[in-house]
Design a protein that fits this description.
By secondary structure, the chain is α/β, with parallel strands linked by helices. Helix content is 59%, strand content 7%. The protein starts with 24 loop residues before the first helix and ends with a strand.
Length: 1046
Amino acid sequence: MALNTNHGAQGFSKSQFSIQRAGSSNDVNSQANQWQTLASTLPFRHPDRAVIAHNIATYHFSLYKATRQKGDLDQAVVGYAEALLRGMNHPHMNILTFDLLTGALLTRFNDFGAREDLDHGISYFRHLSNLPLGVAGINRLNIFNALADALHCRFEVGGRLEDNEDLISHYRAVLTSCPLDHPLRFSYLNNLVDVLTSRFERSGDLNDIKDAATLYQESLDLMDEEHPERMWVLMGLATVYHTRFRQTYDSEDLEKAISRYREVLLLCPPGHKSKDALLMNLGLSLINRFEKFGRMDCLEEAISHYRAALRLCPQGHTRRQLSLRGLTHAMYLRCFRTHRIEDLEETITLQRENLVLTPPGHLMRPQMLFNLSLGLQTQYTWTGDISYIEEGIEHLYEASKLVKSGPPHPRLIVHVLAMNLLHRFRHSGADKDIADAIKHYRTSISLIPEGNPEVCSMLSNFANDLHFIFSWTGDAEHLEESIDLSRSAVEYPFSSMRDRLLAAKNWTVAARSIRHSSTLTAYRKALSILQRAIDLGPTVQTRHEYISGRDIERFRSLPMDAASYAIESRAYEEAIEMLEQGRALLWSGMRSLRTPLDHLRGADKSLADEFTEISQALEAIITTTDVRDFVQTPAGTTDDDYVAIGRKDTFARDLAEKRRLSGELENVVLRIQALPGLENFWRPIPYRHLQTVAMDGPVVIINLSEYRSDILIVRSNHPVVHIPTPTNFFDRVTKLAHKLSETRKSYRLESKQYDCVLRQTLEELSELVGQPVANRLMELGIPEQSRIWLCPTSVVASLPIHAAGPISLPANLNVKRYLCDIYVCSYTPSLSALIASRSRNLSGSASGQPSLLIVGQPDESLPGVDSETCSIERLVGSGSVTRIAGEAATSENVIAHIPMNPWVHFACHGMLQPGRPFESSFLLQRNTHLTLLRIAKSHLPTAELAFLAACHTAELAEDGTPDEVLHLTAAMQFSGFRSVIGTMWAMADEDGQDLSEYFYGKMLSAGAQVASYEKSARALRHATRKLRAEKRVSLERWVNFVHYGA
């Protein structure tokens, strides 16, 4: 570090000894000789000898600046020291001389590196800071700042922690003395923050970064909107928050950083020299948000900012390589999400360009070699071409020879090298690669400082590869170490949820392979982390985006895998608890905010009211429509005044509000759980309570897992019954679901091709599920025509299990029937969803007389809607029917009328939105939509029955999340309807009138006064059987209709 050595006056002389600066070195030497001669004529203790010594020193100091001869600098130091030892006539002269001596010493340290000169300089600065500097015309602030510079320099040179502590104290003193409008205040502030940040990165003490944020915020609070330094203080504050986030992974810090970066970008004028840096900082923070929440729109915005920054940095620009590196990193992340080979190829092209820009000897070459090795490793993973690994290993070895302390840190290089060596081993089988990989892994982990967020991912990688090594060598010690490392990674607090989730997944795989005693614990941890990771999102849409993303694809089977292991261990009740904990997370997260409070109100009404108020506010945030409008760059914008595309960032606002409300709700829940009898309030539902779901009939759970698949039957007051399945159950069911879906896309529903595939599907489902379930139910004494509930998992949920057949019962082997002929079948997304359907207050229908809302929207493709709705009105009675159709059929009008009618019937188009299930909808007047999300927002405690005579209302979107059960039927059930009838695919318009007449005729057959939603499952079964018998409809037309709920 170069020190500022210009302190105080640069020369001093008494009037009788004043001399003029010489025009040449000869003149200077001549006058210096004259001063020396004059000094020799004066007595040794003469008072003017001090002044002469001072002037001689000043001449030598000036001469040194011209000639850079060390001898002149040495004589300047000696001369100033002699002047001080003799003592000047006036105090202010001593102070000035002291200042100049300090400057000369620090100059000598800067230029020649003598450590003692730096030590003396610091000592003299300390002394000077206690003197009355004003009398000598010396600015105390300059002395404080110079002392801080010197301390900073000594800390960098020697690493003395006490210097760092002194440095912080002195910068604080500088800021205390520095007026707000001082031109150097922001520089002093930045220096202090740099030191605090440096100490934070070294020690991990969050108080340092908190102090840094406070300093910036206090400065910001004192500034008006037009203050010239406001933009830079905001930038500093954003950087501090961003730094803390990278240590703590606290999303609040990340959102604050993004908010400040956006504000800075708005303040930054077109053509500003630092605009590219601002775009890059914002881009990096958006990448971090993408990594935390899986939001693809954040990554795309980051890429747009990096591209804009690159345009602002043409060839030769000092920050071009920095912007290029940022774009490369963003593209690297995108290729993992999109799995598009063109994204990976662009990434590697950018990585190679970065490497070209850092020739041998360049400080950043190791980083570029490292980055390219990562891209090549990915290309190997995608293509299997070992040449990419070989090239990557060469780059890593070169990087390891070049790098000393980073970037990248040597631990990262050897860590990735270990991974690549094991990739090579898979092809070469060379034992040396295994040995070297283990050695490099251990080295990398030994170099990780405590509190570093890399710990989790690095432990997890090593654990995963040790499991592979065990599978190759059979050495059980490797597997035991793998399990221990995974456990440590999961429990490490300073890491992202994604890293911990991956570690937990690795733990379950390794532990399960040897039936380790920790296996169930590993699954419990994994399910808990999965739930918390999804709950991070502020809205159900962001949560769905996360759970449906490729990053989490490998974790979606965790609930079913956990249950399968519990079943393998004969822990059937725990298996069911695990399925409830890990499935339908989006619905269960919202359902928890609608927890029945009857017991709580009896114990503490005010606490119940507080819970209700907060949970309703939180639900309003969670069900917010996630706006993704973009502010586009104005036409004609140039590279110089480029305005980056910036999303209207409602996410940050929603996340902050969700965090606040979640904290308040957590506090309320703790207070509730402290009340007697409410200790289990808001905790996961134990099996003894889940079992009550079977009070009206058994629930059949079909668990699908690659490890093993099983069928469980839950009965009230009886042990769980287990039905084993064939070993190829998983493969067969998965193929069935895929084939049925693909056929539906390729052929019309009424086609012979689809009919053939559907019939084959039902036959195979009969063998796999229907026949064994029916046989076992009969063995358990469950009589025919009893109600049963089906709770399928994974892709089984997309199959028509209720229509599995033909089935032959032992009592009459010659009669072939479908499952729904033998038992009255209903579906439920989860056990807790069915419990909720049965627990709602029905005060609005105490009389038994149904009040029905009919929503009809006929058009050219639905000509039968009018006759359908008229038939229903005739059967129910016009006095009990409210009919909304035509111009009146708007989403607002429909939503307003639903709470006034316990029964509702939709006869319109149903719209499925692949990849965007919360936008699935009923198509109403003038192409307006009543969406799934809007329905889910409704809270309908008196709702009973919903008949959704529309296409796709119980069809699962193909977004990879069948266990979330995101369709219109489930939304109606969640909003309050106890029983819901939906369709598994498109519905034939001509079936609407016939099915409705059969259904409502059966519902009202005993009189309107005793009509009940509880009859709806039987009424639907009656209606579909009538369609089969009287209308001779094709298989797909009656199989299409399903019943959900109570």
